[in-house]
Structures are given as structure tokens and as C-alpha cells.
């Protein structure tokens, strides 16, 4: 989200925001000479609070809740988003103290706008107010643009946020990137909403795990854990994703579920208390069955985390883990090829995929170098993964 600051050297109000590849800063307005430092800092603080409240309607949309009845969380979120239409008016005409009291709104976005307006009122400069209104309008426009899945200009700051929903437009954009390179590239982190990118990455991870599992005789949910024996990988969250998808959930359902839990943890709450207590009870039961080793086992079996994701950056953390999982699938696929007595045994069985995939491995002979062999195996792996992803494309619809 945008953050406002007072540049004391220039006596300027500035605003900055993340882009996924560094931050951008612009000058909002030069402050009147008579403006005290405390008033300038207060204005910057209240505008930052307003930006945070406004962007929360993007990261926590009412559409991500199940209940919109009066008094519910969904109802409150809807009220915050609806308050956008009154923000600029509130900034120009805020509630001011009267008889020692000031009217306050229960709608956070509305109240934030009035607080920013009161900070401007204390400075008392109409030109400054006009410039702030123009900038806040640009901020609200950026949020509306991000909601449409258009992450350009000021709306690019959405790339650095975690949203409780995923734009179909952004999921499709991420899918195009992964179709070009199933291992992913920098565009997933600098041009696409991270939650939407994670949904697409989950789809491609499952395709890669299915292809690899077929080769080595495992279930898809075992692939990344097995690959961790070859190279240290972030295997916990990819394995959860694979197991849930193998049980019938869609990439969107799994990713949004994990993200929602992490956001609850970030808010200081426990997402699934009953599930946590069940895990603790199971740890006690299993440990007690081990006799003298009970205490040691109990320590090892107890749950350590409320979410497999980093609560401070759950979407980006999950995306990184899923791409690591795809890399792990490749490691295990390549390991199988390296262990094979005859590379020709790696030819794709047409019955394994909807379309016959030409792996290109038939031409590999004893003179092939290790580097060329890896390149040939990679071509085979990617061809199979793309074919599998195409077969399961309905998962992303």
C-alpha cells in the first residue's frame, strides 16, 4: 500500500509504493512555510492510515466471505468498499470537534478520510487540500484498477500484497507465463498478483507431480518430499497443495484456503482450533505408545506452526514454495532418467497422457554428454508437463 512521509529538507509531502521490483516515490505537494513539523507528520500519518484502510478492501474483499448479513464481517467489508464514493468529500469537509466532542464513523474507510481531512484542516491551506485530494483520487483509482486485474501504474503495488481472492484475469496471465516456462520466471513476481500466480502455479505443480509420479511409481503427494532427498526444498506447503488436489480440490480452492488461514494467523487468531487440538491429541497418543522414548517423540510430533506459510507474506511465500516444488519434480524426474539402464526406457507411453508426447530421447546415444543428456531429459519433462497441464486445464476455469 502507499505510504506518505514528510520530507523535512524540502518541506514536501511525498508518497511511495511498492512495485514488486523496488519502490516508486512522488511528491504530492510542497507544504506551506508556516506548517509545523508535528502537523506535517500528522497529515502523513493519517493519509497512510487512509491508504491502508482503502487497500484492505482489496486484500479483504466482501466476496471472500460467506455471510453478508447485517453485522457480519462481509457486511462490514462491503460498507468499507462502498465508502469510497464519500472519501473525497470527507477530506474536504471532515467532521470537526464541537463542544469538546467529534463525530466518528464505524466505517473505517470513512473515518480514515475524516481524520485526513482534520489533519488538513489544522494546516489550513486550500491548495494543499486540492493536491491531496488529487493524490487520494489516484490511490482509489489504483485500487479499482487492481480489482479489475489491471496491475499497471500505481496499481502495481497490488503485486506486493496478499489478497483473499484471485482475479481470473490475473490467473490467466500467470498461466500464460507458466506455459512459456513451467519453472516460472521473474514476471510472476513483478507483473502478476501473487495469489493469482499461486493458483496457476498450483495447477502446474500438480501437472509436474503427476508426470513425475507416473515415472517413479509414487502418488503425486509424495513427489516433492521424495525430491527433498536430492536437494533441500520447501516441501511442506507444496505437499499440502498436492494432497488436497489429489483429493479433488481445485487449485483455486486449495490456494485460497491456505492464504485465508495464513491471513487469520497474521491477524493473531487460530484458523482451525479443533484441528490444532486434534493434532496435539494425536501427538500425545503416538508418543505415549513409545514407552521410554515418549518425551522425545512428543517433542518431535507436536505441531510447531499454525500455517505452513509466512503470515507476513503468505501469497509470495506460497508462490515461491510452489515453484520450488516444480523444480523438485524435475529433480526426481531427472534422477530417474540418470538411474535408468537405457534412456530409451523413458519414452512416453501414449496411454499416460491424452496426446502422444515426443520426448526426443530416442536419439540419445552413448556419446551424449551429461549436459546434453540433462537438456534432452528436460525437453521430455517439459513436454509431458505441458501436455498434462493442458489435459487438466479445466481446473483453472
Please summarize what this structure is.
With 397 residues, the protein is mainly alpha-helical. It is 56% helix and 5% strand.
How would you describe this protein?
With 397 residues, this protein is mostly helical. The protein has 15 helices and 3 strands. The chain has helices at 37-59, 73-82, 87-92, 108-123, 126-147, 168-180, 187-190, 194-216, 223-227, 236-246, 251-266, 273-288, 294-301, 314-339, 370-391; strands spanning 3-7, 12-18, 23-30. The protein has a 3-stranded antiparallel β-sheet with strand order 1-2-3. Strand 2 and strand 3 (23-30) form a beta hairpin. Mean pLDDT is 90; it is low at 340-357.
Number of extended strands: 3
Determine the mean pLDDT.
90
Could you say how many structural domains there are in total?
2
What's the order of the H and E elements?
Answer: EEEHHHHHHHHHHHHHHH
Structural features:
2 domains, 56% helix, mainly alpha, 5% strand, 3 strands, 3-stranded antiparallel β-sheet, 15 helices, 397 residues
What is the topology?
Blueprint: E1 3-7, E2 12-18, E3 23-30, H1 37-59, H2 73-82, H3 87-92, H4 108-123, H5 126-147, H6 168-180, H7 187-190, H8 194-216, H9 223-227, H10 236-246, H11 251-266, H12 273-288, H13 294-301, H14 314-339, H15 370-391
Antiparallel strand pairs: 1-2, 2-3
Amino acid at each position: 500500500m502507499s505510504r506518505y512521509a514528510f520530507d523535512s529538507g524540502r518541506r514536501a509531502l511525498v508518497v511511495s509504493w511498492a512495485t514488486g521490483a523496488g519502490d516508486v516515490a512522488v511528491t504530492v505537494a510542497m507544504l506551506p512555510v508556516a506548517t509545523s513539523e508535528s502537523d506535517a507528520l500528522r497529515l502523513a500519518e493519517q493519509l497512510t492510515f487512509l491508504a491502508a484502510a482503502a487497500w484492505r478492501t482489496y486484500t479483504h474483499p466482501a466476496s471472500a466471505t460467506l455471510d453478508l448479513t447485517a453485522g457480519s464481517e462481509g457486511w462490514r467489508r462491503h460498507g468499507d468498499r462502498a465508502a469510497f464514493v464519500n472519501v473525497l468529500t470527507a477530506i474536504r469537509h471532515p467532521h470537526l470537534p464541537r463542544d469538546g466532542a467529534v463525530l466518528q464513523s464505524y466505517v473505517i474507510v470513512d473515518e480514515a478520510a475524516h481524520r485526513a481531512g482534520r489533519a488538513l484542516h489544522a494546516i489550513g491551506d486550500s491548495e494543499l487540500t486540492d493536491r491531496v485530494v488529487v493524490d487520494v483520487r489516484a490511490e482509489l483509482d489504483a485500487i479499482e484498477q487492481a480489482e479489475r486485474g489491471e496491475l499497471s501504474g500505481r496499481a502495481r503495488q497490488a503485486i506486493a500484497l496478499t489478497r483473499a481472492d484471485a482475479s481470473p484475469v490475473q490467473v490467466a496471465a500467470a498461466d500464460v507465463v507458466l506455459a512459456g516456462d513451467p519453472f516460472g520466471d521473474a514476471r510472476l513476481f513483478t507483473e502478476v498478483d501473487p495469489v493469482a500466480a499461486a493458483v496457476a502455479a498450483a495447477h502446474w505443480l500438480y501437472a509436474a507431480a503427476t508426470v513425475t509420479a507416473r515415472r517413479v511409481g509414487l502418488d503425486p503427494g509424495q513427489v516433492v518430499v521424495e525430491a527433498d532427498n536430492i536437494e533441500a526444498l520447501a516441501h511442506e506447503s507444496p505437499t499440502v497443495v498436492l494432497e488436497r488436489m489429489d483429493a479433488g480440490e481445485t487449485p483455486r480452492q486449495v490456494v485460497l484456503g491456505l492464504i485465508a488461514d495464513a491471513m487469520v494467523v497474521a491477524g493473531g487468531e487460530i484458523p482451525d482450533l479443533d484441528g490444532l487440538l486434534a493434532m496435539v491429541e494425536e501427538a500425545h497418543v503416538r508418543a505415549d505408545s513409545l514407552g521410554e522414548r515418549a518425551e522425545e517423540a512428543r517433542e518431535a510430533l507436536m505441531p510447531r506452526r499454525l500455517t505452513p506459510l509466512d503470515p507476513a507474506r503468505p501469497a509470495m511465500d506460497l508462490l515461491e514454495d510452489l515453484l520450488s516444488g516444480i523444480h523438485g519434480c524435475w529433480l526426481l524426474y531427472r534422477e530417474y532418467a540418470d538411474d535408468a539402464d537405457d534412456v530409451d526406457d523413458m519414452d512416453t507411453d501414449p496411454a499416460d497422457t491424452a496426446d502422444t508426447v515426443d520426448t526426443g530421447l530416442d536419439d540419445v546415444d552413448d556419446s551424449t554428454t551429461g549436459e546434453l543428456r540433462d537438456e534432452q531429459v528436460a525437453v521430455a519433462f517439459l513436454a509431458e508437463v505441458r501436455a498434462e497441464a493442458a489435459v487438466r486445464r479445466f481446473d483453472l476455469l
